[in-house]
């Protein structure tokens, strides 16, 4: 009897140890480190930011979010998904603030009053990258549409995001401009984020459309060169917007407004413009707050 | 080859320098998956025992459902938990989406069927003669069940190991319901996926090494516990 008692005791002791561990598990996330010098804590500190993978993968948000949190006391939950999903989260009131880059799709949300306080933040540009051997001979083509046509005509591999992200939306509109419906074994959809899609294109020796920021940030592992760039239709324009609190009562209105104000603030705009210069020798994003969309790139 | 070497060096470096970010992610992984395993244990052992010992119509059907759920794809669990926890969803008022709690819920749902199924199998394997003997000793119902569970403890620990192994290595559900929020819900698997998409393969390799080490250490601890009991 003694023996089995000690067995039971062992088991109980082990379970208790695990339980204690679990105890920390539920306690720890509640108490994020709070530095002493912090502004007055907002009553509803959690702000859900739905954004595109490019802002996360490029590292820009790693610079901006901590700075915003320090200045305002809000806590940003960054959910990095494609622009398509980010906009859907806005339409359903599942996020508080959106930072996306698909102006034509965003317009629908603005018109439906799903979002308010729609502000231009920054732009960079899309580029078409591909293997340096350039089997479709797109280098030197003046427009993206011509380049895509050459890729389709030569049946060279083109890797598409295929995830309804901002980049994917841009790609689809470019195919439309080229009057081509991309189909066939050469047209492959990765169904994943920009970074991963670049990896796939690099491994398959294919072409893809990418934002410059993600390309520069991940370039070191890629066997891809920039082949087409600089056309106005390749501009990649980012807007920030609040999800409309009048339509969705659970939205964190003050937190969302604070984040929009922060992004268009001159200090932040300078930070955006400087981001990446030290590492890549060029800006990854160009600040545009206060400008008109039509004037960008002129 | 060079990349693998770089990754291993990075992992070693992160481990010995105690990179605070990596430490935080590792600790959260352990806490979330440990809690989820415990919850599924609390749900799974009683239900599994019940399923093994009682006879009722539809029992075989229920058993087949449990057995199927043992291989439930985590993304399916992730999707449904997300839908329920959305602000507009039926449990939206809990404000749990994109918190560690949401990951615990999803992982507990993934591990529970595994624990139920393995518990039921373990209890059913006990020699029916032994059951009779225990009953003949004049045990109360509670005592009887306690004896049975104790008799099956090696298999139960195996169930715990299987459950923990399944959830600690899971990425789809954690990504969906947790959102990979830095400092809050970023666990080893979701961080690895993100680093891959950033093209930081060395960091990704380092994180994967740490994940394997973590899984190994926990399993080692449970195995020692199991074997030590056997050795007494």
UniProtKB/TrEMBL annotation, chain A:
One Pfam short name: PBP_like_2
Keyword field: Signal
ATP-binding in keyword set: no
SUPFAM superfamilies assigned to the protein according to its UniProt record, in alphabetical order: Periplasmic binding protein-like II
Stretch forming the signal peptide: 1-27
Domain PBP: 40-265
InterPro entries on file: ABC-Tungstate_binding, PBP_domain
Keyword Cell division tagged: no
Stated name of the protein: Tungsten ABC transporter substrate-binding protein
Origin species: Effusibacillus lacus
UniProtKB/TrEMBL annotation, chain B:
Statement: the UniProt record of this protein carries the keyword Repeat: no
TM annotation in the entry: 32-53, 65-86, 98-123, 144-168, 203-225
InterPro entries: ABC_perm_TupB-like, MetI-like, MetI-like_sf
Highest taxon above the source species: Bacteria
Stretches assigned to the ABC transmembrane type-1 domain: 26-222
Bilayer disposition of the protein: Multi-pass membrane protein
Coarse class of the protein's main subcellular location: membrane
S-adenosyl-L-methionine keyword on record: no
GO CC annotation terms, alphabetical: plasma membrane
Alphabetized UniProt keyword annotations: Membrane, Transmembrane, Transmembrane helix, Transport
Subcellular location: Cell membrane; Membrane
PANTHER family in the record: PERMEASE COMPONENT OF TUNGSTATE ABC TRANSPORTER
Family, as annotated: Belongs to the binding-protein-dependent transport system permease family.
Name of protein: Tungstate transporter permease
The species this protein was found in: Effusibacillus lacus
